[in-house]
Amino acid sequence: MQERKLTGPQHSFLFRVIAFFSRLQLGYMLRSKGYPRFLVMIFVFAAGVIALGTITIIAYLTRLPLLFPPLGPSAFILFYTPMSISASPRSVILSHILALTAGLSSLWFFTLILSHANLYDPAVINWYRVIVIALSMGLICLMMIIVKCVHPPAAASALIAAMGYLQNVEQIIGFIVAVIFLVLEGVFFIKILGGLPYPLWRADPQVARNYGELAGIPATGINFWQQLAMRSYQRR
After folding, report:
1. What is the pTM of this model?
2. Among 96, 64, 65, 61, CA closest to 78
3. Rounded CA separation 153/226 (Å)
4. Count of alpha carbons within 13 Å of 126, Cβ hemisphere only?
5. How does DSSP classify residue 80?
């Protein structure tokens, strides 16, 4: 008796290849394997190395200003807590753009009324610089809260701008391009390779609640500020 040949898309070679690689995704392994923390550590290490390494290589080959210190903590938040609201593309991109706006506008305003202060020289530290830095920090904190795009590393971007390290339009554009490129790498590593429901723009808080530490939620379900408030209350 002749055996019946199995047909259908689930028996095709392409389907088997996709099924094989889907089992290597972080989202699948976290549900089916042990040692989830170890898997996350490997993912964060590999994604961080490749993401920042790629930006560095592009900056080296093109001689474009794409390397800025805030990219480091942004990459860490992006890959360690990818499902958190602060790691969503909207929060990362908008917060850094708002930070540059806050820092540069503060610097421009005080340079306009105090042309003798030489504030565009990063080496100059005086009382005018103190005012510019303080104002830029206050502005970026306020703007992130109002726009609801809180991403802590953006405060460092405002500081860099307020201290006069961004000397021309090319550096400003390079900064924004580097942030966008980092987010695109996040989409690739987290959504495509990782298999996690990483948003393309705005995070869904309802989805984030299901991912614990990947969403920045400690295993206890209580964050640092809640723990601090509880301790302060207990001391009374």
Report:
1. 0.80
2. 96
3. 21
4. 11
5. H
Q: Cα(130)–Cα(120) distance, rounded to whole angstroms? A: 13
Banded pLDDT at 118 (limits 50, 70, 90): confident
Q: Count CB atoms within 10 A of the CB of residue 48.
A: 17
Closest CA to 198 of 26, 45, 24, 35: 26
Residue 220 has pLDDT above 80, yes or no: no
Q: Which of 48, 28, 50, 51 is nearest to 39 (CA)?
A: 28
| 196 within 8 A of 190, measured Cβ to Cβ | yes
The closest alpha carbon to 203, from 142, 156, 150, belongs to: 150
**Per the structure block, which two tokens stand in for 211?**
């991912």
Do residues 47 and 214 touch, judged by C-beta distance below 8 A? no
**Residue 178 token pair:** 């580097």
Instruction: Give me the number of domains the chain comprises.
Output: 1
Domain limits for position 162 = 11-217
The answer as to whether 4 is a domain residue is no
Could you give the CA distance from residue 137 to residue 107 in angstroms, rounded to a whole number? 12
Q: Indicate whether 5 belongs to any domain.
A: no
